Amino acid sequence: MAPLLELKDFHYYYGNIHSVKGINLYVNEGEMVTLIGANGAGKTTTMQTISGLTSPKGIRGEIWFDGKKISGMKGHKISAMGLAHVLEGRHVFSKLTVEENLNMGAFMRKDSKNIKSDMDGVYKRFPRLLERKTQLAGTLSGGEQQMLAIGRALMARPKMILLDEPSLGLSPLITKEVFAAIREINREDGITIFFVEQNSKIALKTAHRGYVMQTGEMVIEDTCENLMSNADVQKAYLGGE
Known about the structure:
Elements lengths: L4 E10 L2 E11 L4 E5 L6 H8 L8 E7 L2 E2 L5 H6 L2 E4 L11 H8 L9 H11 L1 H5 L10 H13 L5 E5 L7 H18 L2 E5 L3 H7 L2 E6 L2 E7 H5 L2 H7 L4
Parallel strand pairs: 3-8, 3-9, 6-7, 7-8
Antiparallel strand pairs: 1-2, 1-4, 4-5, 9-10
């Protein structure tokens, strides 16, 4: 069976800058896979290109999702195929309420009768959002906004969620809570997850497999268990433990 997501000899160019250099990666249905690496390694560019947020002019190579080639496809068409992207920095509609934000996540759906039950599911997973459902999203804490961004992605009933730096700017306690929810979404809802994370330790403790990216190139791919015991990964990303 083909992977749900696959990048084949993928390159990305910002003009003359060769930012991603011929990487290959795959994510199978039901997996949770992480991409780690230093700032500027090309991780966010890779994620944004998968979901159609970069200029198609910069793409070389192929990106496949759910059996279809999506390289250069417009973002709204990729989203309609069942790929949701939670961007770095918790992009919520700040002047809409929590509930209005969640409804925005379902705006492309035609099965309106199921939207209420799905929203109840989001509130069950993130009880803080239920407490604040009439509150403007811009007044939420950083952790609550991250929960809302993930909840909005769930409202689209995606086959796969891309997460870009889900712990960015969050306290250790809230980070732990957010990653517990991410594990549940994968394990209980069966949603495939591919995420970029600066906190390499929590990333490798969460995912099944991982890729390590350096200056636009993929340098290691292995199970997270093996990556955590890899001396080079320990030295570069895990504080030498």
